[in-house]
Structures are given as C-alpha cells and as structure tokens.
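Batch manifest, entry 17 of 40.
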Amino acid sequence: MRAEFGEYTEMAATADFARFLHGISTDNLIELSYVDRRRVHNLKYFTWVEQQGRTYEEIMAQWYDADYWTGFQKQVNEIDSLIEAFNHDVGLVK
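Output type: structure tokens
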C-alpha cells in the first residue's frame, strides 16, 4: 500500500478513524436470538480447536463460565507487557 498510496500519515489515520470508527452505524448490525448466538458460538470449534489447538472444554467455558471473558480483563498489564516485548523483539520499537 505504501508503494501505491505513499506513507501513512497522521492525517490519513485521523481521517480513517473518523470515517471507519466514528462514522460507523448500525446498518450491518443484527440483534441475535439465543439460537443465533449459540450457532455463532458453535462455529468457533473449527478455528479454536482444530486450528489453534484449544480445547473443547475451553469453548464450553466461554459459553457457560460467566467470568471467562472478564478474567482476561484482569490480565491487561501482563498482556500489554507481552505486546511491548514482542514489538521490541521484532524491531517495531527500540
């Protein structure tokens, strides 16, 4: 994209942010019923278990354990540190 459009500037990022995030609407949003949510949840099996090596029990925990997703929020500082270390390792930051 750099070759075609040039450097990605702060002004371009600001315009993209306004257009694609602030400008978002509910045009492509659907309120799912319980059955719909369950169907979407069940689609995770292939990507989570067969591709990523997660367990079926983990998928079930995502559905039945009320603290499953909020538990990740408690790891924000640890996750941020891992991201910063990765960015340093691959040369994104010095």
